[in-house]
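re: that chain from earlier
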Amino acid sequence: MGATQTIWNALTTIIQMEERVKQQARASIEQQAKIEALTERVIRLEAQMDMLLIGAGAKTPPRRLR
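^ sequence. v structure.
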Protein backbone atom coordinates (compact mmCIF):
# COMPACT_ATOMS: atom_id res chain seq x y z
CA MET A 1 0.00 0.00 0.00
CA GLY A 2 1.49 3.31 -1.03
CA ALA A 3 1.77 6.51 0.95
CA THR A 4 -0.96 8.14 -1.14
CA GLN A 5 -3.41 5.38 -0.29
CA THR A 6 -2.55 5.61 3.41
CA ILE A 7 -3.11 9.36 3.41
CA TRP A 8 -6.37 8.93 1.48
CA ASN A 9 -7.61 6.32 3.98
CA ALA A 10 -6.73 8.59 6.90
CA LEU A 11 -8.59 11.52 5.35
CA THR A 12 -11.59 9.34 4.62
CA THR A 13 -11.63 8.14 8.22
CA ILE A 14 -11.43 11.70 9.53
CA ILE A 15 -14.32 12.83 7.32
CA GLN A 16 -16.44 9.89 8.47
CA MET A 17 -15.62 10.64 12.11
CA GLU A 18 -16.54 14.30 11.63
CA GLU A 19 -19.93 13.32 10.25
CA ARG A 20 -20.54 11.00 13.21
CA VAL A 21 -19.67 13.81 15.61
CA LYS A 22 -22.11 16.13 13.82
CA GLN A 23 -24.84 13.48 14.00
CA GLN A 24 -24.19 13.00 17.72
CA ALA A 25 -24.36 16.75 18.29
CA ARG A 26 -27.73 16.93 16.52
CA ALA A 27 -29.00 13.99 18.56
CA SER A 28 -27.85 15.66 21.77
CA ILE A 29 -29.64 18.89 20.86
CA GLU A 30 -32.85 16.97 20.11
CA GLN A 31 -32.56 15.02 23.35
CA GLN A 32 -32.05 18.21 25.36
CA ALA A 33 -35.18 19.71 23.79
CA LYS A 34 -37.16 16.61 24.77
CA ILE A 35 -35.84 16.76 28.35
CA GLU A 36 -36.79 20.43 28.63
CA ALA A 37 -40.29 19.73 27.31
CA LEU A 38 -40.73 16.92 29.85
CA THR A 39 -39.48 19.18 32.63
CA GLU A 40 -42.08 21.78 31.67
CA ARG A 41 -44.80 19.12 31.75
CA VAL A 42 -43.72 17.92 35.20
CA ILE A 43 -43.78 21.48 36.52
CA ARG A 44 -47.33 21.96 35.22
CA LEU A 45 -48.42 18.64 36.73
CA GLU A 46 -46.87 19.55 40.08
CA ALA A 47 -48.68 22.89 40.04
CA GLN A 48 -51.99 21.18 39.30
CA MET A 49 -51.42 18.64 42.05
CA ASP A 50 -50.59 21.40 44.53
CA MET A 51 -53.76 23.29 43.63
CA LEU A 52 -55.86 20.14 44.00
CA LEU A 53 -54.32 19.35 47.37
CA ILE A 54 -54.80 22.89 48.62
CA GLY A 55 -58.39 22.81 47.35
CA ALA A 56 -58.92 19.52 49.18
CA GLY A 57 -57.81 21.07 52.45
CA ALA A 58 -54.16 20.08 52.63
CA LYS A 59 -52.22 22.54 54.78
CA THR A 60 -48.96 22.51 52.86
CA PRO A 61 -48.00 21.06 49.52
CA PRO A 62 -45.94 17.85 49.71
CA ARG A 63 -42.15 18.06 49.42
CA ARG A 64 -40.61 17.47 46.03
CA LEU A 65 -38.35 14.55 45.24
CA ARG A 66 -35.54 16.71 43.84
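The radius of gyration is 25 Å.
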